[in-house]
Write the structure tokens for this entry.
Amino acid sequence: MNQTTSDLITGLRKGDRRSLARAITLVESTRPDDRTEAVELLDAVLDATGASIRIGVTGPPGVGKSTFIEAFGLHILSSGHRLAVLAIDPSSARTGGSILGDKTRMGELSAAEGAFIRPSPGGGRLGGVARRTREAMLLCEAAGFDVVVVETVGVGQSETEVAGMVDMFVLLVSPGGGDELQGIKRGIMELADLVVVNKADGDLEAAAGRTCADYANAVHLLQPKWTAWQTRALQCSAMERRGIDEVWAAVIAFRDSLQRSGEFGSNRARQAIAWLWSEVDETLLHDFKAHPKVRALAPALERAVAAGETSPTAAARKLLNAFRQ
Ligand SMILES: Nc1nc2c(ncn2[C@@H]2O[C@H](COP(=O)(O)OP(=O)(O)O)[C@@H](O)[C@H]2O)c(=O)[nH]1
Ligand SMILES: [Mg+2]
């Protein structure tokens, strides 16, 4: 292990935010020597990880995720916790814009002593993002952040991946009629442990109440995820910072119920095993695609498959044989 890495470990264990930022940059790097350092780093701090509650926050663009996380985060800090926010935005790699928007919407939180906010630009493949986000989450825990929020834009497969690495999954929705309920994909509803109807203020307050009741009914029809917890629906105004304490109370109730039933620990164990295999999957696939023989053969085989001259199965076999040789 080099000096930089051992300095990072010391800094992390002291809760230094600059060391945390640098450690996350290291785990995000794809350079092979950085990867080696990153794995050593993660191993060295593993004993200091795990003692947090990991919360996924998702919802369609514009629902108020960033505003909510700002209000929620400040509330959590005031109860004496340290909060890390990891924001995954698959579009930010292209536009770069949403990070700036989030920085301003989370201005008070980013300036707060006990908070750490890190946008995770979507580095190409989604799987790659989730992979590094898991590692970043462990680093935040090692640095003493006992609440970790992973924010994801509710548009794609990212929800499933994020739900697979957090303890609790919170779905933010806007006030609206029955159509709104239809618009949220059923699959995402099934992942939610808590549905929060945001923007329950001003003209939207009455609609928020109705939407909240609709969701409360809808979640009862879903297959329960846990024996010790039934998905709830709440409403809040992130902008006016009302109803935020109820959301935090629900998070605590969720954690306590699942810890009592043993499901908290068993879920984490399941997630760790899934992580192991996805790490193997992704590394193998990466090595496969980077293999010189595979790279040499692939273009011609792709053309042959596209032209209908070779079956995809036969072409895949050729590539796999070239890889194994
Ligand atoms: N009325 C109202 N507007 C809100 C609330 N929360 C967020 N907004 C507004 O909704 C828009 C999108 O908010 P933002 O936090 O960026 O949403 P995100 O895309 O989900 O992160 C902004 O114009 C916010 O000011 C709320 O509780 N009430
Ligand atoms: Mg946002």
